[in-house]
Amino acid sequence: MGPSDGRSRSLSFTRSGGSFVGFRGNQPITITTDTTSRTSSQLGRQLQVAGGNPTGVDQSGATFARSPRNNFIASDVASDPRHTSMGLFGLYVHELGNGLGATIGLADPFGGYAAQNSARGISDPDVGAAFESCVFGGLVGLRSGRVGSRREFF
After folding, report:
1. Residue 13: which H helix or E strand, with range?
2. Which end of the chain is more exposed for a tag (fewer CB within 10 A), N or C?
3. In Å, how far from its chain's centre is CA 50?
């Protein structure tokens, strides 16, 4: 269902990628999720350079402040048949939340939600974790599809 003026909104995700189209007032917002171009180790190093991953540990997904309308789920994570479709969808919702937060101008989408998330037992301080928790009631496990305060990554 879209707004009464004929505009449409959509949400789509598969292991091959994802997209979101919505509106903020009259301004369209499009967020795309790339699941093929970067591995978890590449995302970990890129986030380390950007200052969001001090140790450089592998990351299952990433949204970068410089281009939040294009985010990533690691290709080795998306293609791993041991990861459930629900777990990958949870990760997609997480990165979509980060992209939307940065795109619409939340004060600190990549670190301002630490207290809210911590109250739910979630150590990830970003809006993506808060958004995923809002949608699912917690973080969705990649392999189990279960919801809780932690996501099993690998």
Report:
1. strand 10-14
2. N
3. 17
Residue by residue, what is the 3-state secondary structure of 79-104?
CCCCCCHHHHHHHHHHHHHHHHHHHH
Which residues neighbour 140 within 8 Å (Cβ) at sequence distance 6 or greater? 86, 87, 89, 90, 91, 93, 132, 146, 147, 151
Instruction: Note the pTM of the prediction, 2 decimals.
Output: 0.90
How far apart (Å, rounded) are the C-alpha atoms in residues 31 and 97?
10
Helices (H), 1-154: 40-50, 75-78, 85-104, 114-119, 127-136
Q: Are the C-beta atoms of residues 126 and 134 closer than 8 Å to each other?
A: no
- For residue 106 the two structure tokens come to 């939340």
Residue 18 CA from chain centroid, whole number: 11
Tell me how crowded residue 6 is: count the other CB atoms within 10 A of its CB: 6
Tokens of 30: 């499009």
Alpha carbons 18 and 96: distance in angstroms, whole number:
9
> How confident is the prediction along the chain (154 residues), in pLDDT tens digits per residue?
445 555 668 999 999 999 999 998 888 999 999 999 999 999 999 999 998 888 999 999 999 999 999 999 999 999 999 999 999 999 999 999 999 999 998 888 777 888 888 988 998 889 999 999 999 999 999 999 999 988 776 5
